[in-house]
Structures are given as C-alpha cells and as structure tokens.
Amino acid sequence: MVSKFRKTKIICTIGPATDDDSVLRAMMQSGMNCARFNFSHGDHESHRRRFEQVSRLRTELGLPIATMLDTKGPEIRTGTFEGGCATLEKGQKFVLTTKDVTGTGEMCSVTYKKLPQEVGPDTIILVDDGLIALRVDRTDDENIYCTVVDGGELKNQKGINVPGVSLGMPYLSPKDISDLEFGAEMEFDYISASFVRSAADVDYLRSFTQSLGWKDVRIIAKIECSDAIKNIDAIIDAADGVMVARGDLGVEVPFEQIPILQKKIIRKCDEAGKHVITATQMLESMINNPRPTRAEITDVANAVYDGTSAVMLSGETAAGKHPVEAVKAMDLIARTTESEINYKRNFMVSHLHCERNITSAVSHATVTTAHDLNATIITVTKSGITARSISNYRPQSLIIGCTTSERVCRQMNLSWGIMPVMCEEKDNTDDLFNHAVEVSQKHDLIEKGDTVVITAGVPLGQAGTTNMLKVQKI
C-alpha cells in the first residue's frame, strides 16, 4: 500500500517558473520539502524577492519548507564571443588565453588566470559539459595552445573542466563570499557548496560562515569533480551531507562510472549518518513535457531504492513548463517505490551499528521497539540530532520530530523519514510527552489507538542529552 507519508525528501530549484504564487504554493502542497536557490544565476535582488516569497507562502501554508543556498563555486568559464558564439571544427587549432579578449573561432579568454601554469602537453580540457574537447599542445605565460578533439558550437561563458588535474584556485571566490554574506543575512538553512575538492574546502567554508555569525547553517558538499571522489570519505566526515551532482561529475569521470559512484556515495553517507542528495537530470524531460520518460522514472526509483535522503529537481522547476507536475511525479514515484521496500528487514540485516554513545543507543532501541510494536516514533529534540540519528537507521515507522526551534524544524524537513512539527517547551517530561502526542494528533500524524515510542532527554531543553524512551498507547 502506498503511504501518504513520503520518506525521501524533494528539493525544488526556484526560478522564473516559480515566480507566480499559485505555482509555488501548489509545489509546496504537492510535496516540496526544500527550496534551492542557484547562485550561479540571478542577482541578490531577485534571490531576496524569491526568498521572501518562499517565506511568506510557507508561513501561509504552515509548512516547514527549508531553504538552500547553492554556491557558484570555483568555476572556470570561457569569455564572450563575437556574435555570441563560435564554431570549432575537429582538428583545428584553438587558443585559450588569460587576456581579456572577445572570442573568435580561433581564440577565447578564460576566467582563471593561472590555468596556463597548471596544465601541460596532452592535458584534455573539456568545455560546455564535455561537448567540446581540447588537447593541449603547449603553453606560455598567458596562452594555452590546443587542438580541437571534439568540435561544436561554443557559446558565451561556458564552463571548463580539466579532469584529473588539481587546480590551485582559492575555494571561495569574491562572488561566493558576497553570496554567503547575503545568505547569512537572509538566514538560509542549508548551503550546498559547489566543486568541493577536499575536507579542507568544507572546513574553510564552515569557518567563514561561523565568522559571519551563521553558526547553525548545515553544509552539503557537492561531489562533482575527480578530486572530490578521491577525498570522499574525508569530505563526508567534514560536511553535514553531500550531493551527488551527476552533471559536472559526469564530465570529470567516465560517464559509465556515474551509477556505480552514486550507489557507493549513498551507501557511505547512510553508514556515516549524513544527508545524501541525488541530483541532476532526474526528470529532465519534464522541462518541456508533462510526463517523465520511463528511464527517468526508473532513475528516481533506483535512487530511492539506494537509500538517498533526497532527490532534487533543477531546471524542471526553475525554468520548466510543468513545475507542479514535476513535483507531483517525483512525489508519486518516491512513495510508490518506498511501498515496495521492506525497511524492517533492511534494518535487521544492516551492518550499521550504533556508536558507543547514549543518543545512538537510545535511537537504535527506539527503532527496534517501534518495529516490534508497529509503532510511530516521536522524538522531542532541541537540535535535531536525535531525530537524524533515528532517521539514520531508516525505520519503517514514521518519525515525528517535535522541536521548539523553527530553524531546526525546517532543517529536519530535509532528513529522510522525519515529519517535523513545532511544539512548546514544558517543565517536566510528563507534560512534554503529552504535549508531543497532542501536537502529533493535531497534525493528523497519529490517532487514538495508535502505539507511539517517544524519546527525549533529561534535563529538558539541552541539546544532545537524549536518554529516555517511553512506549505509550494513544
């Protein structure tokens, strides 16, 4: 039976297609959990307007929609061309230069001034998501002299990738710094950090956000370059989660490796108890068409089977013709797939063991008890740590995360299997448990006759002190 409660969360990219209130409202009502703002496009004025729109509508609907700032990251791009583009033919010579020139069919500028010093003969440079390939012949201080391996039409400001080469660009560009300062002002709930290469990039970003007073933002590292694959374990450890950004990753590594890497990264994140988001081209055809292709349906379902925390829509909702239909399709595919997964069995055979601390032990016991009694889980949490710890075990049971913090409530809305609700602070555990049950009933998450397993911590109101478990019949 298909449940009305979806465990896998949905991230929707905000853009021109969502500017109409009726569209964004319908997306929220159809299952959107998080609004992603892509700072590779738009300016602060447009992002502010859309952020305020999201904030207003989520308040109107009473939905804890999270917000995510997606950084532009340390990208390299081409400059502009005469007439907006140039056609490159296979075998011809072409020059990439650090000089500020208007591009032609023989030369164009690049944004990274040290690129000639960091590539050498026979290095392959990919442009426009790999559609155009150049092989380096030689370099000098300002120029890279290339032969075109794969030609095509090259347009303004296209991305450049250099697979297998560790580039020395600083992780945060001046634009990223400005965008993050704006993000701290607006109080985004998540940052998705583009082109993370190592744990040091994550640590540097976290240090910078803390210097802005933005200490409780959660950082998602986007895995989209070969360096990130090499350093994946350390990145997972340093970040609050990762995004499998299959678009750029498919340029940096052989495309046939993408499904394998996706499964490996999801498994590693599940074992580490971290968010993992599967992204890029999930329902790409719905940018123009009202229904997804069979391959896209299977792609989303496979990510759910793999155990992804969330799936993401990009152009489908930001600029597509059918943003609401895309969210509805994603929701239906995820819920239908989840109905076929035996989470109880997976939990029993899982090699995931609880850590040697009280919170993990109580979380493990909570899931075991809930499965034995076919019960709903209610966790009263100050920081969201316990709810995420329970979520890590991927229980069959619904997890209701009760919190007094609006920020934590929104952040939990991106965690697998958690239904976050706001509650009030109470002076003793009896009142707290009763209030949590009442709030859950008010939201139609449980009803009379249900069994619930409730977790909380004593003393009340202190983060990370979960040490209690109670079973109650409603």
UniProtKB/TrEMBL annotation:
GO molecular function terms attached to this record: ATP binding; kinase activity; magnesium ion binding; potassium ion binding; pyruvate kinase activity
Record's keyword annotation contains tRNA processing: no
InterPro entries per the UniProt record, alphabetical: Pyr_Knase (IPR001697), Pyrv/PenolPyrv_kinase-like_dom (IPR015813), Pyrv_kinase-like_dom_sf (IPR040442), Pyrv_Knase-like_insert_dom_sf (IPR011037), Pyrv_Knase_brl (IPR015793), Pyrv_Knase_C (IPR015795), Pyrv_Knase_C_sf (IPR036918), Pyrv_Knase_insert_dom_sf (IPR015806)
Keyword Zinc-finger: no
Domain Pyruvate kinase C-terminal: 361-471
UniProt-listed Enzyme Commission number(s): 2.7.1.40
Catalysed conversion reaction: pyruvate + ATP = phosphoenolpyruvate + ADP + H(+)
Pyruvate kinase barrel domain mapped to chain residues: 6-327
Family named by the database record: Belongs to the pyruvate kinase family.
NCBIfam families reported for this sequence: PRK05826.1 (NF004491), PRK06354.1 (NF004978), pyruv_kin (TIGR01064)
Protein name per the record: Pyruvate kinase
Organism: Candidatus Scybalenecus merdavium
